[in-house]
Automatic annotation (TrEMBL), chains A, B:
Keyword Zinc: no
Taxonomic placement: Bacteria, Bacillati, Bacillota, Bacilli, Bacillales
PROSITE patterns, per database record: FAD_PCMH
Protein name in the entry: Glycolate oxidase subunit GlcD
PANTHER family named among the record's database cross-references: GLYCOLATE OXIDASE SUBUNIT GLCD (PTHR42934:SF2)
């Protein structure tokens, strides 16, 4: 708990109205979208500007109080769960677009802005911010940057990291630094911009970001390819890219996912096939037309039983929305939904899907798989119930095997969800003890008192998800 | 100097034939392409593999011997000058393409491979590695990664950083770490891949890299727009991009540069105009055709006196080659050529060119300016003579003013050349004392004995170029 003295210091910075420590507020911010993690913060602060954040951080650094910056808490790795108490920082007062620069094609924003709101503002000017995490209706840019969020357009356009050109951040000692700028090229010093992207709030608090925009593609087309053979769908993915076509979106949904998504969205998705690919291309009309034709041909050659182009933008949007809502749909099945994001080189998609199905069978679990096939970024999802400890043990073992198999295939334990608390015990699988030691050296150098989102990324012990529930 | 004991330890690692400490070898590697910096190393080693590098690093860490990894030494910031002696590491035995993966669109290479050689190999397979520093005929991928090299295609395609997907690196303690992989998405831990890109050998030795490839554009077209008004050329750059066209190349050459380049290349470049823009677009034929037409229209609206499309690929290649050789051409004018790379947001190009010309006049210097206008990345270049101390003082003051002006315009002291020794005294202009302190914390954490390319990036004192000559 915070002492009265510290509480008064913090209130003197943000004002009484931006300091909350009643039980209700602390409960609201005790968890995020990750199942099975909860821990009460000591207080919830809503600073109004960078100077206030710097002042808060200085107090926290002096008294060794944990700080957890939080956007909308949609992350799936318990990255914003205040596992060690301390202060949750909210950005509800720092949610503005500072500038859209049409000459330099940049947008400068405060971290608290909702991603979709920003996207709509820039698209109104004919510009395009491609990263589109499924959570973008509610997630914030600050959260996206801290988690290096991906999305459906990653294959062609990259992820959040590829669009962050400059940052303002508050370090653990209260220093405010600025990195990068509206610069296509800048090699003045270490790339702290990208070091901070995806660092999950463990190195500092991001207070402003300048993001790269590109011209909005002229047109977009959407199609569905249906398969009775999962392998054939995976082969189509590889063959499209080996044919030098990079579609904007190349999503995979297996039958169990399709059934749930259709029950939720009711837009006429086929539920009698083993898998579908949702394929989109954008760009100049001639190019989109040609690429769609060539991709349809490839899917047919690879035994797609049907290839249907969406007849209207409304139909296309319904398909995209259904896909984006896959997690919400799956969450209706059982009290607990464990969704993972093991990722492999795209050439290994077929092997990975096969491995997931074998592992599900071995542990007698239902695992639905969907995800960004073009990125090799799959979301095996297990509807379960945390109260069933016996089943949760099997879930934990199954996902550990899935991570190990992903690494064996040249992959990673997390493609876009982050490490947080949840995947910290598995990080060594990917980076080795030496890689983690190097990261720890950087963390300790920038945050010697370990106040910046402590307990995240680095595993304190080898406890895993199943143990947390006990 | 190295003791006999240390020398024997190093020879036992790399073999007698890969250890050189005769005066001639030490002289050859005492300087790089940067004028006016020279310092003898104690020995030059050519390891054959990562294990040998790890063993060398362990010896160096034990005895606090500086290590300077060196590709072809084409950098322009004295980044590979062994200013504190020690060991120069050469990569002549580590220069292979390990794999071109056509399914995942990656190439995995050893650091010593010449960039152009790798580009030719991947293009033979219909794939494309866009970063094209002007030095690419002789520079190595390892050097490009350490300096985060740019090039003529940066505007549309980004720089080296944007194509590095994974690294193997040897840390100062001898640990070998692997980052990233053939993964479109990977958020497992801090982004050490990008932290190492552009770190100029100060954080570790890069021993292998996996690079992203994209499909080779189907076609490319090249044109020259001629101007009697530099401002009009700069306005054309801004207007092209504000019209949502992102060309592959958008290069600027002023009249003094044009004259020198034409005298060198003799390809019929106009020398009676104030400035030219070299503009290229690549992609599907319809798109290239349309963009070239629209860009030509914009240039004419902005008072270009002539817009000429290259009639053949030979003519286009001659134009590109002439541009790439601008530095070599300028180097023929005077004994010493000081070339800088102050960079601004592209909206500020006109103001920056104007400032450079005013500063040249103020200090009574010839400064030729060319560069990547679309990136805001200019190369003001001063033909001079280091033996003329009085003039060098003026050169130094002029460039300091250029850096300050670039920063005032929201720019940076270096767009693509790196900080090295040469720009270390100016780094604080861009990052502030707090930004440099944060970088220093990371450097000390990963390299506590400061053996990795010491004296680079971080200024020991405020001495600048002119003082070095005395």
């Amino acid at each position: 708990m915070l002492t009265t003295d510290i509480k008064h210091k913090l209130i003197s910075i943000v004002g009484q109205e931006n300091y909350e420590d009643n039980k209700a507020s602390r409960l609201v911010y005790s968890y995020d979208a990750t199942p099975n993690f909860q821990s009460l913060p000591d207080a919830v602060l809503s600073p109004r500007n960078t100077n206030e954040i710097s002042a808060i951080v200085k107090v926290c650094n002096e008294y060794k109080i944990p700080i957890v910056p939080r956007g909308s808490g949609t992350n799936l790795c318990a990255g914003t769960c205040p596992t060690e108490g301390g202060i949750v920082l909210l950005f509800k007062h720092m949610n503005k677009i500072i500038e859209i620069d049409e000459e330099n094609l940049t947008v400068t924003v405060q971290p608290g802005i909702i991603t979709l709101n920003m996207i709509q503002e820039v698209e109104a000017k004919g510009l395009f911010y491609p990263p589109d995490p499924s959570s973008m209706k509610i997630s914030t840019i600050g959260g996206n940057i801290n988690e290096n969020s991906g999305g459906l357009r990653g294959l062609k356009y990259g992820v959040t990291r590829d669009y962050v050109m400059g940052l303002e951040a508050v370090l653990a000692n209260g220093d405010v630094i600025r990195t990068g700028g509206k610069l296509a090229k800048d090699v003045a010093g270490y790339d702290f911009t990208r070091l901070f992207v995806g660092s999950e709030g463990t190195l500092g608090v991001i207070t402003e970001a300048t993001l790269k925009l590109i011209p909005l593609p002229e047109t977009k087309k959407t199609m569905l390819a249906l398969y009775q053979d999962i392998d054939a769908a995976a082969r189509s993915v590889s063959k499209i890219i080996a044919n030098r076509i990079i579609p904007a979106t190349l999503e995979f949904l297996d039958q169990p996912t399709l059934k749930v998504v259709e029950a939720h969205a009711q837009i006429g998705l086929p539920t009698d096939v083993q898998a579908v690919l949702l394929i989109e291309q954008d760009g100049p009309p001639e190019v989109v037309e040609r690429d769609m034709f060539r991709m349809a041909e490839i899917c047919k050659q690879e035994q797609a039983i049907s290839v249907q182009v969406a007849k209207s933008e409304e139909e296309a949007e319904a398909l995209r929305t259904a896909r984006r809502n896959a997690l919400s749909a799956l969450a209706r099945l059982k009290p607990t939904t464990i969704l993972e994001d093991a990722t492999v080189p795209r050439s290994e998609i077929a092997r990975m899907v096969k491995a997931i199905n074998e592992i599900a069978e071995k542990y007698d679990l239902t695992i639905c798989t969907f995800g960004h096939a073009g990125d090799g970024n799959l979301h095996p999802t297990c509807p379960t119930d945390v109260r069933n400890h016996e089943e949760m043990e099997r879930v934990e073992k199954a996902f550990e095997e899935i991570f190990i198999r992903a690494i064996e295939l040249g992959g990673t334990i997390t493609g876009e969800h982050g490490v947080g608390v949840m995947k910290a015990p598995y990080l060594e699988l990917k980076l080795g003890a030496q890689g983690i030691a190097a990261m720890q050296a950087v963390k300790s150098a920038l945050d010697p008192n370990n106040i910046m989102n402590p307990g995240k990324v680095f595993a304190k012990e080898s406890r895993k998800r199943v143990v947390v529930t006990q």
